[in-house]
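In response to reviewer comment 3 from the previous cycle, which asked for concrete evidence that the modeling workflow produces usable outputs, we include below a single protein chain processed end to end. The sequence was submitted unchanged, and the resulting structure tokens are shown without manual editing.
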Amino acid sequence: GVDWPMSRRQKSAPWLKIPFPQHPAVGSLVIELPERFTPGRHALLWQILTNAVIPALFTLLLCVGLYRLLIRPLNQLREQANAWRADRLSSRLSPQMTSRQDELGELNRAFDHMAARLQSTVQIQQQLLRDLSHELRTPLSRLRVACDSEQSLPELRERLSREVEGMRRLVDDTLHLAWLDAEREKLPDEDIQLLALWDMLVDDACFESFWSPRQLSCDLGSECWVRGHLNTLAQALENILRNAIRHSPPGGLVRLGGRRDGADWLIWLDDQGGGVDDGDLERIFAPFIRLDGARPGDGGFGLGLSIARNSLRLQGGDMWAENTLEGLRIIMRLPAADRETVE
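The workflow returned the following structure tokens.
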């Protein structure tokens, strides 16, 4: 065996001493080996190399590989979290980290998405705060002027009531928009017949605007059923209808139409307000945007379309705008209900 003890006398061949396994006290077998069995001069060096150095090198390579594979990505994630803690929300992970096809790559992409979402939320909130303070400055200035004026008490009360009501609507709409932007859970939905919802909204719109019901027509039939949250869908459609009435000329026509598109319904509302520039079709959905030069009319704070779009997106739908020959068309995509006729 290789582990058997071997010795070499001075200037002689190596010899091997093997004790008898059955009777070790009797004696041993001593064998003199040929010269080719003589242990090498560097046997100890090779033993150290094979038993210590080579395993140590493999262990070092394994540690370096594990560090590059696991520890360094975790360190970068820690640096990313520290950057967020220092309010550097624009900091992002490197493309090498987000392009990995393993669990750490998924974690890195989730971190980047979370950072982008957090930065967007903070920017929106800051923009809403700036816009809200700007919008409130005008009615507050008018209130100040009204208090310093020599108006009679009934006129002063009317002015104060009008300005306070305007500020209340502004604050309510801004808070509603902020809630819609922060809400990420899909709202509970139900089957909604758009024709019945439209009839209810037309009654309210005619009462507020003094329009005739003949000016608010609907081309949808009783087969148009969608899935959505009734209150938020009604508010979104009401905001679009009010916006269409506000920007249409007196005696104009606002028409609701739609068609089935696979598993969805495409619903559109046409007005006769002249439309907007093609470059502003997306800007009209931003908060506090009022294109007075593009579309005639006044009133409102530029929040209606923003609230309407966010409401539809929380219901699994979407909204966009297109120009027509006579005005602006607001298009809504809503999930279709399973049934197609009124029960």
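The longest strand covers residues 254-261. We consider this sufficient to address the reviewer's concern, and the full set will be provided in the supplementary archive.
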